[in-house]
Amino acid sequence: MKKAITVILLLAALLFVTIEAGAQMNDLDIINSETRDITDADGTVSVRVDWLQRPGEMAMTITYNGFLTQEGLANFYIEVNGEQREFMTMKQELKNRAQRIRIISFHPTCRIENINRLMELPENTVVDRLLFRNAPYYKQFGDLNVELKFFIHGRWDGDSNNNNENFRFTFTSPITDMPKFHF
After folding, report:
1. What percent of the chain has pLDDT over 70?
2. pLDDT digits (tens, 9 = 90+) for 68-93
3. What percentage of residues in the chain have a pLDDT greater than 90?
4. pTM to 2 decimals?
């Protein structure tokens, strides 16, 4: 009888520790990451896509190092699988004058004194959940297509390798198995 009670208490404690560890999972942990670069006569544009631990959520980091950086933080047009923003502004200038912005698909939370609160984000990070609305998290749903074009003070910077059109990037999700239980 004592062994049965001990085993039950041990299993209950193990279950409690497992639940606590799962509750402290960081939603911003990266499952996989892919980077694509386009270099033309005017500079380099780099896009990094992160598939995050939280199912269905993604982050995208855009780094621009073109001729428009000499005029201040560049603005850009972005389209992600049909969802577009006609005006966004880079948020961070790096030491080599390149500019960077990170866009995430949700506002992460953290636990402070047993209360879930919105996490304070770095200055170069913005949340835009609707931009990723058509972005496929799983490989079964297709490719992630990103188009960018930069502008400032009436001057535009496109892909000079491709007739100065939008910079075009394509990513394929590495996640092939669809989990049955997300949360």
Report:
1. 83
2. 999 999 999 999 999 999 999 999 99
3. 60
4. 0.82
Domain assignment present for residue 14? The answer is no
Rounded Cα distance, 78 and 143, in Å: 16
Contact 148, 59 (CB under 8 A): no
Structural domains counted in the chain: 1
Residue 4 located in a structural domain: no
Token pair for 80:
């992600």
Residue 159 falls within a domain, yes or no?
yes
Distance, in Å, from the CA atom of 109 to the CA atom of 15, rounded to the nearest integer, reads 24
**Residue 1 token pair:** 């009888």
Helix or strand run (H / E) with residue 14: helix 2-23
Q: Which of 116-120, 132-136, 155-159, 160-164 has the lowest mean pLDDT?
A: 160-164
Dist CA 31 CA 46 (whole Å): 20
Around Cβ 169, how many Cβ atoms within 10 Å? 23
Kindly state whether residue 17 falls inside one of the protein's structural domains: no
